[in-house]
Amino acid sequence: MREVSISRETAETKVEVVLNIDGVGESEISTSLRFFNHMLETFARHGFFDIRLNAEGDLSHHIVEDVGIALGSAFRKALGTASERAKLVRFGHAIVPMDDAIAMCAVDIGGISERSFTVLRVNFSHRIIEDTATEDILHFLRSFASEAKFTMHIHAGGENEHHIAEAIFKALGIALDHATKIEERRIVRKKV
Ligand SMILES: [Mn+2]
User: Fold this and answer.
1) CATH top-level class of 3-179
2) Are the CB atoms for 116 and 144 separated by under 8 Å?
3) What mean pLDDT comes out for the span 83-111?
4) d(CA 162, ligand 1 centre) in Å
5) What is the average pLDDT value for the chain, to the nearest integer?
6) Ligand 1 ion: Cβ-proximal residues, 5 Å cutoff
7) Are 168 and 47 in contact (CB under 8 A)?
8) How far is CA 142 from the centre of its chain?
9) For residues 33 and 24, what is the distance between their CA atoms, to the nearest angstrom?
10) Which of 111, 116, 102 is nearest to 180 (CA)?
11) What are the residue ranges spanned by the domains of the chain?
């Protein structure tokens, strides 16, 4: 089982994460932001990742950003070394509708040369969803992919902001569930 614990403390926040990539989608999430908790639970459920996460801090922006860094770091650690990453399916994608909204997510998690790249084409027209700022959600996605060394493209739009965000987190979970599987047929050759 690929399970890791991460504890990250700065002057602004304290984040603790336990991640099992080979889980069943169970989560216990506490970030002080109810909508953000809902999104992370959705991500865990559809990615079949078990996630226990506790985050506290001074400002919402810092908490959301540092949860992105800690969760990205947990994925990076759980996926292991470059040669372990070479055994993964590596690519994953999903297109998820939620009523009026649709989200498309494609990932490459090969971590080749420790690079990462994030493209977000997401049309939010309001500043806030419940208690969570839409710009902070986008910031979370960038911090997460950057720290995990993922290439991640997300395109999403719709009428209802809650639906747009929820479709994004479902699509990300499904895409990463696929990409993190181990491809048994691949022959990994050592570089000479
Ligand atoms: Mn919902």
Assistant:
1) alpha beta
2) no
3) 96
4) 6
5) 96
6) 166
7) no
8) 9
9) 24
10) 111
11) 3-179
Average pLDDT of the residues in 83-92: 94
For 55-91, b/e burial (b = at least 16 CB within 10 A) is: bebeebebbbbbbbbbbbbbbbbbbeeeeebbbbbbe
pLDDT (tens digit, 9 = 90+) per residue, 136-182? 999 999 999 999 999 999 999 999 999 999 999 999 999 999 999 99
Please report how the helices 134-148 and 34-47 are oriented relative to each other, as an axis angle in degrees rounded to 10. 40
pLDDT of residue 113: 74
Using pLDDT thresholds of 50, 70 and 90, give the confidence band for residue 189.
Answer: confident
DSSP letters spanning 46-94: HHT-EEEEEEEES-HHHHHHHHHHHHHHHHHHHH-SHHHHTTB--EEEE
Q: Tokens standing for 39?
A: 């999104």
The token pair that represents 30 in the structure block: 């506490």
Distance 35 CA to ligand 1 centre (A): 8
Q: Work out the end-to-end distance of the chain between its first and last CA atoms, rounded to an integer number of angstroms.
A: 30
**How much is the pLDDT for 115?**
87
Distance 164 CA to ligand 1 centre (A): 10
Mean local confidence (pLDDT), 17-38: 98
